[in-house]
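ok here's the first one, seq then struct tokens
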Amino acid sequence: MGAGASTMKRMILTSSSGVGLTYADRADMVVPLIFRFVSGPLPTSHHLDNYLKGGSFRGEPDVRWSDLVVQSPQTGRAHRELGLVWFCETCGVELIELWFDPSPNNQLQLVWILDYLRAEPYMVERLRLRLVDFDLLGADVAGLRERTVRALDVTERDFEVARMAWEAYRAPTPELCLGLLSRDFPRLPFLKPAMEELLAELPSPITGLGATEARLLELIARGHNRTRELFQPGGLLETRVYDQWELGPLLEGLASGPMPAVAGLDPKLATLAPHDARGRNAAFRRSRLLLTEFGKAVLAGREDFRSHNPIRRWWGGTLLTNERLWRWDGQSRSLVAP
């Protein structure tokens, strides 16, 4: 629906994957939410709230909900300094659609934003959930404009499921997330598959590798030794959990430590700052990867990578260390406690 085609004011909340919706003429304003919840420590509730409340305060997040929003003809720059909810009320937004695809980070964003909005009566009455059953990233604008995407009203039960799932993912152990797999969420059909994909990234009881790490080793073993073909979106790795920027640290983890599984990573990477994207990119491109003998043994299930190498990595609210190493047994779909 074009901006001037009707008096109904529509807003779409989506992930950064859905930025193409800005040009698909389906709403007056598209708000892409930028958080990545699948790697690194989770942002605090305080940080997330400030991101949505807007305004600029010293020491608060540099990025706010309005920063990726294209200026709308109706409201001009009004969104820049207002909180999301306050903006919707002030500008009389009549319909707020949630567009989040099945990928794990999108599903985590969906449960987070539902949990946040459940306490806001103005928003609750105007929310619609779109069941986006395709990947938003890479979808062409014409396709997004024409596509039929089923819409549901958001119910109290949906808010309850979102709260439960978001709390489970933020908990200090993955046990509550495992509990979600035995439940049915017919109105949030992509939540359980996403949670299972996330659990598969916990280290295996046999190899000590998560699903994406294991796939990386398999591809390197087959001779795919260039990071570009491994990391590019829609590339060989076919990872749905991590984006291309999160794969670098994962590969570095496999190539460093007392017993590396991968050799050939450019040694300059060890000296570059994490935020030096250009330098790190170039170093990754210069790398020619191959498996070490130990890496081959890990891939074959004869060695456990984590028995020989340190780990300190966040999985949701769970900090994985060698002493507190939760593992995921994909065959029995069960957790192995430390």
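and now the second one, same deal
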Amino acid sequence: MPPLSIRAYTATSALGRGLDAHADALLASRGGLEPNDFSSAPLDCWIGRVAGLEEEPLPPELAEWECRNNRLAWLALRQDGFIDAVRDARERYGASRVAVLLGTSTSSIGATEEGYRRLDHGRMPADLHRPVLHTPHSLAGFVATAFDLEGPCLTVATACSSSAKVFGNAERMIRLGLIDAAVVGGTDTLCDSVLFGFNSLELVSGEPCRPFDANRGGISIGEAAGFALLERVTEDTTGPMLIGYGEASDAHHMSTPHPEGLGADIALRDALARAGIEAGDVDYINLHGTASQKNDEVEAALVARSFPATTRASSTKGFTGHTLGAAGILEAAITLLAMRDGRIPGNLGATTPDPLCGPQMAWTSEQREVRIALSNSFGFGGNNACLAFAQVGEPA
């Protein structure tokens, strides 16, 4: 496929606000997980919480969209010059030629939960009687409104692959001439639904998650927001590019991956083919690596059989927790940082490697040039996505 320029990107998570905060934490091997102090009832687990979000409401002109999820999105949009980049794209192309394509798994459901906890004679309380909030499309609608954009506005909700799959949506729309640029990414915030929901599936760990550790005990849930601006490559393009993506839906089970990693393997092969590269060309893979038993087992075997020992791979969920629908964009941003800084993130939390892991695993941080990288995002229901990135001038 013709590559797309990543004109700007940003992320906010438990590691901090903006790209440099993430780079500093990754360099120092400093994780952002802490004991759960968020849920409405006690739950013994660790979370990746964005500090100070409660004290930063939306500006008055956007108050209709007020909720934790949109607060976090607004915070992230104001990092790393991202707002200026989007406004510049709107000026160059026109408001109707810039799409908003965002992934989320829960959107603003936290506000809906609060409303049901405070029902007023069976009705939503007055301060939450705002229909734009109580919909899966709240996030994308908010971002389109904040930027005054009039192009396609799409929400993708495919569980933990959501904010990776939007890159594919953007490529298709740009290639077909429907748009000239796209704001892609996603946001998911902590809420009772995900904390107690994953706990009911016996997937939540009582200690900080340990991806690919032989004794791992489950996931740690986090929150994050991230965004990227995609455009066609031009003569003056600099920086990273999206050179491929792969998608698959094996539908093996509602919450368990295919035992041989069928969907993940198809998504990987699809990404390599679109990028026009071989497995041996890949310098780094940011793994989905949730620290659940089945995901890590399947993904470790996939990497071990598919890539040479020279390829490096790691999960960064030990730093941030699993940010669900925002995992794709957060980990894409971390992958782009690895390319920018020439530094492979370590696989924080693992002390006893799972025997299924091959020599590709980077257990600690490594200094190394990263020219071509992949980022895996695997969701419930077999919704799998793989993104391929390269620096300008590399194979595309």
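notes on #2: The radius of gyration is 20 Å. Residues 4-391 form a domain with the Peroxisomal Thiolase; Chain A, domain 1 fold (CATH 3.40.47.10).
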